[in-house]
Design goal:
11 helices; F-box_Sdz-33; Zygotic_Embryogenesis-Asso; F-box domain-containing protein; alpha/beta; F-box_dom
Length: 339
């Protein structure tokens, strides 16, 4: 016998729904009617912080807060009546239920699903879109139109056209990850790569991407992002020495934090600092920099064990740096404590 939930007073409706164990069952209820959707939205514990969209072997919508979340997989996408399957996630991994829930709502498109889930779960932020599979550019742009996705994560672009299409889907993203794990992928449109590097990104993460271009310090100096992470850097000692000297003369003025990952490099502090204005900083001075690196948040503690920093000639901005276990951290800012 059906339970007359909607016939109850509103306070009793909420009390009943708070006893429901499965969030998935609440989603099913939210699809029944506009009134049912409103009731489900009133449950404060459904609030999730982030909305992420993955393009892999299908179209995935991931809602989560902290370690826990829900992942919705859509097949037969970009048309009405897409088949939607949901799984709970823990630490980014699916927690497969014995009988995973799925829906097919005939009159809902992919964008309808995105809007419905973001509204029901009171999502406060659109985090990123992850391009890890094939897609049709114009159709995907229509689906994502109006969404304020902050991060564009592009994995293993296969060609210039593939990279251009992925960037065209989110032309106003504040952050960009470019990941290239596959070998022997050549990008021939160097002018376009240079144009991308000169965009005013808040953060640019290069994960072994286009080493024949960004392996050149001259090309690297054209990057205009505030935070830059360059994994698998091929820079040499002479490149680091030249970078520091050019920075003191005004290169990469927007840069606030730089992370470089080297396989083998032993710093030559005397050589690096020769000819630059050095200042002493407090011995125990530390700065914590939090940035998103390869879709995970890294807390980087920048310790200057040498107790020195360099000053930019043009405006007096101070930079401190650290080398540890094959990685360089550079932190720039006028507010560093100076002895």
């Amino acid at each position: 016998m059906p339970f007359p939930l909607l016939s109850l007073p509103i306070d009793l409706q909420i009390l009943v729904l708070q006893t429901v164990d499965k969030t998935i069952d609440l989603i099913s209820l939210s699809l029944c009617s506009k009134r049912a959707k409103t009731i489900v939205k009133s449950l404060r514990h459904l609030k999730l912080d982030l909305c992420e969209i993955w393009i892999k072997d299908g179209f995935h919508i991931h809602l989560h807060t902290g370690l826990c979340g829900l992942r919705f997989e859509l097949t037969e996408v970009f048309t009405t009546g897409a088949l939607v399957r949901v799984n709970e996630t823990l630490g980014g991994l699916d927690v497969w239920d014995e009988f995973p829930k799925s829906w097919r709502v005939p009159d809902m498109t992919t964008r309808d699903w995105i809007d419905h889930l973001r509204e029901v779960f009171l999502v406060s932020e659109n985090s990123y879109i992850d391009f890890g599979g094939p897609f049709e550019r114009d159709t995907l742009r229509m689906v994502l139109r109006g969404l304020d996705m902050k991060l564009n994560h592009i994995r293993n672009p296969l060609s210039d056209d593939h990279l251009k299409s992925a960037l065209a889907v989110l032309p106003n993203a504040e952050e960009l990850d470019l990941v290239q794990y596959q070998e022997n992928i050549q990008f021939h449109d160097k002018k376009f790569i240079k144009k991308v590097s000169m965009q005013n990104y808040r953060r640019l993460d290069l994960i072994d991407f286009c080493p024949e271009h960004f392996g050149s310090l001259d090309n690297f100096l054209l990057i205009n992002a505030k935070t830059v992470a360059h994994s698998e850097s091929k820079f040499r000692k002479t490149d680091i020495d030249r970078f520091l000297k050019l920075w003191t003369r005004g290169a990469m003025r927007r840069l606030e934090y730089l992370f470089l990952d080297f396989s083998e490099l032993i710093p030559d502090w005397d050589g690096f600092l020769e000819g630059m204005e050095c200042v002493k900083i407090a011995e125990k001075e530390e700065r914590t920099k939090t940035f998103q690196h390869s879709l995970t948040y890294r807390h980087s503690i920048v310790r200057n064990t040498e107790g020195i920093a360099i000053r930019r000639r043009t405006d007096g901005v101070i930079a401190t740096f650290n080398y540890e276990n094959g990685r360089f951290d550079f932190l720039f800012g006028i507010n560093l404590f100076v002895v």
